[in-house]
Specification:
This protein has 6 domains: about 70 residues; about 120 residues, OB fold (Dihydrolipoamide Acetyltransferase, E2P); about 210 residues, no CATH class; about 60 residues, no CATH class; about 45 residues; about 160 residues, 4-Layer Sandwich (Metallo-beta-lactamase, Chain A). Helices cover about 50% and strands about 15% of the residues. The chain is built from 21 helices and 22 strands. The strands form 4 sheets. Strands 1, 2, 3, 4, 5, 6, 7, 8 and 9 form a 9-stranded mixed sheet that branches. It has a 6-stranded mixed sheet with strand order 16-17-18-19-20-21. Strand 17 and strand 18 form a beta hairpin. Helix 1 runs parallel beside helix 12, helix 2 runs antiparallel to helix 4 and helix 15 runs antiparallel to helix 16.
Length: about 700
């Protein structure tokens, strides 16, 4: 029988996480009143009821304790949510001309700009009143202003106010607004040099600034001494957790081979750091007084310095906290369950920042470690190779299978693909990490004082990384290396985890009821998928997407989808997720090519598209002066690229049932056309304001 007593945090942490999830639905007042009432009731029952009677209500006591943990999760989440504070910029309703802010990060290069983060100190209203406010703002500086980039610690005066980050305007698109909200950021601003003035430099130095400065210095050392560009990206990712230098082809290859986790600094990397530091400072533990404690403190110090250099990602925080607990437990000769240590580290991190629970890295990191701890010994017991080398590779394979089994439902949900050769790639990349990370650290140390040695080590590191890249690329190109475009719902993800849990229970307890639960859960998964497939097979629709650089349209008939628009990285970001969620097979239309399902013809700056008996007109350019003899009736008229400023000019060309203002129009033009359409009682949809439009009809 399973005993819960040695695992207190395995009981505490799930209820605390439930409280975090419920925080947005429960008011602070109700949570406080409930918590106080439960606590007082428990105290009164403890003192007034006889112990014999009170002990009979053990399930009730457990329920009260669980409820208290849930309420604590709710209150702690609300306490750390800065947007709930009255002085947050979200609640500022006056007009303002300027604000003063402090730069709290170093510039991060993007494709056409540099990204940075500001912390607002106060805002000057239009009347000149100084309003102390708080908010973090993402700002983008054009690369043409690179000579005047904001640096960490700068205090600046900014003209205007930042705008709130918008919600996604396309179906199934990644919710960048929610992603930043979990980090406490709700505003952004495009900042040109003429709209800001540097008031002071290097203000308010703190640990984060010092860590960021060290990180930038380490980055420059890697870029200087590791020769190959692809190798530089891998070295920076493995050593410092910096992924922005990774080539897209490299990321695709590692993701397809199931080796992307090696490029994200995690428990493996922190474990290697611990082994190195523990070995180098082992003599300290032999000191007669406080030797063990000194050795433990040094190990903990270096672990957290490394965590700071890598940017405190959730997986690094988890690993650093867990190793800290292990080191302390070893130093004081206390052995604790690894499950309880993991749960305790999760509780500790979530108490500091409850919104970590929504981080994909946090979720995958803990699931992978729990999977490895519980499943790896059991999987490894399936085979017992007598050869030491074969046994080593089998142990690595068991680790890969355990981690993959624990994370694959969540990976399918977030990344929509499954690498079939993950077990093979991990045999390559896990031992490779044991070489690359120490070589990367040696390059950093040597780069500070021994440039010649740094060149040699950097060259060796670059050559080794090229060999690993070639190996990963080979695995990626194997037939059937990746199953792509998998789409499952959040409910199906939970059901798949129920299947895994019931499967483990079946092997552990060997009771038939768990097999029944597995079958029922799988039936639910399949039923949901069949319903989705049937609904998609009946769909006949047109979707107008919100993409600023070009008009993007989908014409869908069941699982056949025709896409009109230039396919680039921007289109992929905004559109691809919807294609994956629907499970459609997409064909791309180019030029004026027609297909059996669709007919297209072009006039001067006007495109006519006939699909399933509906006629759609798209105006890309200013209407020609030569007018038509008779206006054409279309079902939907799409106005794009600021081609029309006044709806009255359209009348001699088109009669239409609905006007669609496409996302390529400026916000000003879109608003102007929408106002005119309202005045003339014309049915319309403004994509820049209302988001993408999907129109369903039957053939």
């Amino acid at each position: 029988m399973f005993r819960w007593l040695p695992y207190p945090f395995l009981r505490f942490t799930p209820f605390f996480i439930l409280g975090i999830a419920l925080a947005q639905y429960v008011t602070t007042e109700l949570a406080i009143a409930s918590l106080v009432s439960l606590f007082l009731t428990y105290c009164v029952a403890t003192f007034l009821l006889p112990k014999v009677i009170f002990s009979r209500y053990h399930p009730v006591v457990a329920l009260v304790a669980a409820t208290i943990l849930v309420l604590l999760g709710i209150l702690r989440t609300q306490q750390t949510d800065e947007s709930r504070q009255d002085d947050h910029l979200l609640h500022f309703t006056d007009t303002a001309d300027y604000y003063v802010a402090t730069v709290i990060d170093y510039p991060e290069p993007k494709k056409n700009s540099y990204k940075n983060t500001l912390d607002i100190d106060f805002v000057f209203s239009t009347e000149g009143q100084k309003n102390p406010l708080t908010a973090e703002v993402i700002v983008y500086q054009p690369k043409t202003d690179s000579s005047q980039l904001l640096q960490f610690g700068d205090r600046i005066l900014v003209k205007g106010l930042p705008r709130e980050i918008e919600s996604p305007k396309n179906p199934a698109e990644f919710d960048y607004r929610q992603f930043l909200a979990y980090q406490g950021i709700y505003h952004q601003q495009y900042l040109r040099a003429e709209n800001s003035i540097r008031i002071a430099s290097n203000t308010q130095p703190n640990w984060k600034g010092i860590a960021s400065k060290w990180r930038n210095q380490c980055r420059e050392i890697i870029l200087q001494y590791v020769p190959n560009r692809e190798a530089q990206g891998i070295a920076l990712a493995i050593t410092l957790g910096l992924k922005r230098h990774l080539e897209q082809e490299v990321q695709t290859a590692y993701a397809a081979a199931g080796a992307m986790h090696i490029l994200a600094v995690s428990g493996l990397h922190v474990g290697i750091i611990y082994l190195i530091v523990s070995f180098l400072f082992k003599p300290l533990s032999q000191l007669p007084k406080f030797g063990v404690a000194t050795h433990a403190l040094v190990c903990i110090l270096f672990l957290w310095i490394y965590a700071a250099l890598t940017g405190f990602s959730p997986s690094v925080q988890r690993a650093a906290v867990m190793f800290t607990f292990v080191i302390v437990g070893t130093a004081i000769h206390r052995q604790s369950s690894i499950y309880n240590t993991l749960a305790c580290s999760a509780f500790f991190l979530l108490w500091i920042n409850p919104y970590l629970v929504y981080s994909v890295g946090f979720q995958l990191s803990y699931l992978a470690v729990f999977g490895i701890v519980y499943l790896q010994p059991r999987i490894a017991a399936w085979v017992n190779p007598y050869n030491k080398l074969l046994n080593y590779f089998w142990q690595l394979t068991a680790v890969s299978i355990a981690a993959q089994l624990a994370t694959f439902p969540l990976s399918l949900y977030y990344f929509h693909q499954f690498p079939t050769y993950f077990w093979l790639s991990n045999i390559v990349v896990i031992p490779a990490a044991l070489v690359m990370l120490p070589l990367g650290l040696m390059t950093l140390v040597a780069g500070l004082a021994f440039p010649t040695l740094a060149k040699v080590v950097g060259l060796l590191l670059g050559t080794f990384i090229e060999f690993i890249n070639a190996s990963v690329s080979f695995i990626q190109q194997l037939p059937g290396s990746t199953v792509e475009r998998i789409s499952i719902s959040s409910l199906q993800t939970w059901l798949l985890y129920f299947v895994i849990i019931f499967l483990l229970a079946l092997f552990h307890y060997r009771q038939l009821r768990y097999l029944t639960m597995i079958v029922v859960s799988l039936l639910f998964v399949v039923t949901i998928q069949v319903i989705n497939f049937y609904q998609q097979s009946q769909e006949v629709s047109m979707t107008v997407y919100h993409v600023k650089d070009d008009t993007h349209l989908d014409f869908t008939n069941g699982f056949n989808n025709l896409h009109l628009g230039e396919w680039n990285s921007s289109a992929e970001y905004h559109v691809l997720a919807n294609h994956i969620q629907k499970g459609v097979k997409t064909k791309f239309l180019s030029g004026s090519v027609s297909r059996d399902e669709i007919q297209r013809r072009s006039l001067e700056g006007i495109e006519l598209i006939e699909f399933q008996g509906k006629l759609v007109a798209v105006i890309h350019e200013k209407l020609p002066r030569k007018r038509l003899r008779e206006s054409i009736h279309v079902d939907y008229l799409i106005v794009a690229k600021n081609s029309v400023r006044n709806l009255s000019v359209i009348g001699s060309y088109f009669r239409y049932d609905q006007l669609i203002i496409d996302g390529t129009n400026s916000y000003y033009v879109a608003r102007q056309l929408a106002e005119e359409a309202e005045q003339k009682h014309i049915p319309y949809h403004s994509v820049p304001v209302q988001g993408a439009l999907t129109i369903n009809w039957k053939p």
